Amino acid sequence: MTAKLLVVDDEPRTAELTALLLRRAGYSVEVASSGTEALERIRTGSPDLMLLDYEMPDMEAPEVLDSLRSGGARIPFPVIILTGARHSPADQVIGLERGATDFVVKGTDRQVVLARVHSALRERAGSLTSITRGRLHVDASRGEARLGDRVLKLERRPLLMLQLLANRSGEVVSRAELLEKVWGSSYKGFEHSLEQAVHQVRRELKEPAWIETVRGIGYRFVVQP
Amino acid sequence: MATGSSSSPEPRAELAQALHRLRSTLARMRAELEVAEGDGGAPVDRLLSDMREALEALGNVESTALGVVRVLVVDDDERLGELTARGLRRLGYDAESSLAMRTLRPREVVVFDLSVAPSLDEPSRAALRLSRPIVLTGASDPSSRAVAEDLDASDYLIKPVDNEVLAAAIKRRKAEGQP
């Protein structure tokens, strides 16, 4: 299926050129010329990925991201920010912790832009894949998890977390990555929520040892159920 | 806060040189276009190559003047390397990933996965050593440590590494200044 991308830029020629590049790479592309228009379009149908200009007259990228996340919801698709301004890491102005997946500096080689779009779409697919591993079956998109015949009663985030860990069985998944992929932000304030989710999953599985805590780093799914 | 510009020995000279290169390249492009305007048909390949050069020069100016910190993540696992680079971009770094060593940009910090070490040729090994890389490894055994020491590593981190821990290592490396 062709991925549907939304390009947001207030400068019509820039938007058109970005859209052209992506269409030539086989994506289906829509264009919005302001933050407000982007939010309207998203309300009528969610894209698979959004490329968002940082500097726009009506609202800057962080405001668009904040609107999308209002109510603490996770932005359900990856967002790549396009920016003309360069910063030092000390500036902390980029606002990427507010839910953007990646960022690209304007004037970057088109192959690199395409690679980043591809990578963001792939990562999204990776964490959304349902999984069956022995007796365990998790399909977060349908909101269901089973161990053998037993239905696991899990809320959305613990469910997504279990799916992600089980997909990467044997590998340590860092707290930062879990926060980013499940909570949509690596904001430290969600750490408590992450611990609660782990607790809930262990309790529902009734196999607390299946999810191993790797001190100071993250968690690992260690079993072949 | 250490930045690229403060750790560079001659930021002003470097800035002047990068701006000079930028102006020459833009001037060449203008001349190319002016000639093409008369003859009809623009030399697209030459203009594109000039444009790449101009943007590279502009990148050098930004890096010197604004303290943009450039990072190259070298990892034989494309997906993991790109995840690390992306995590650093989200923290405000100008980070790229690569499967192999490449020519470094001025003041670029290298994050080097030890799994790539066996495939290094002599010139890349020398360039890597000179950059005093931050070495990532999956193992804490003495032999990995020896390889890291041989590469004159500025830091040695065991995977998986939290992005903020990596960012702290990059800051330490920048604070040391140029090799």
Helix content of chain B: 55-70%
User: In terms of structural class, how would the helical and strand content of chain B be classed?
Assistant: alpha/beta
Give the beta-strand count of chain B: 5
Structural domain count of chain B: 2
- The structural domain count of chain A equals 2
Number of helices of chain B: 7
**Poorly predicted spans of chain B:** 1-8
Distance between the termini of chain A: 33 Å
Structure notes:
The complex is a heterodimer of chains A (225) and B (179). Chain A is an alpha/beta fold. Chain A folds into 2 domains: 124 residues, Rossmann fold; 93 residues, Arc Repressor Mutant, subunit A (Orthogonal Bundle), CATH 1.10.10. In chain A, a hairpin with a 3-residue loop joins strand 11 and strand 12. The longest helix of chain A is centred in the middle third of the chain and has 19 residues. Chain B has 2 domains: 63 residues, Orthogonal Bundle (Helix Hairpins); 107 residues, Response regulator (Rossmann fold, 3-Layer(aba) Sandwich). In chain B, 57% of the residues lie in helices and 13% in strands. Chain B is built from 7 helices and 5 strands, in the order H-H-H-E-H-E-E-H-E-H-E-H. The two termini of chain B are 19 Å apart. In chain B, 37% of the residues are buried. Chains A and B meet through strand 5, helix 4, strand 10 and helix 6 of A and helix 3, helix 4 and helix 7 of B.
Characteristic terms for this protein:
heterodimer, A: 225 residues, alpha/beta, Rossmann fold, Arc Repressor Mutant, subunit A, 2 domains, 38% helix, 21% strand, B: 179 residues, Helix Hairpins, five-stranded parallel β-sheet
Summarize the structure.
Chain A is of the alpha/beta class and 225 residues long. Chain A is built from seven helices and twelve strands.
Write the layout of secondary structure elements.
The complex is a heterodimer of chains A (225) and B (179).
Chain A: E1 4-8, H1 12-24, E2 28-32, H2 35-44, E3 49-53, H3 61-68, E4 79-83, E5 102-105, H4 110-128, E6 131-133, E7 136-139, E8 144-147, E9 150-151, H5 156-167, E10 172-174, H6 175-183, H7 191-205, E11 211-214, E12 218-221
Parallel strand pairs in A: 1-2, 1-3, 3-4, 4-5
Antiparallel strand pairs in A: 6-7, 7-8, 8-9, 10-12, 11-12
Chain B: H1 4-7, H2 11-39, H3 44-66, E1 70-74, H4 78-90, E2 94-98, E3 109-113, H5 122-131, E4 134-137, H6 142-150, E5 155-158, H7 163-176
Parallel strand pairs in B: 1-2, 1-3, 3-4, 4-5
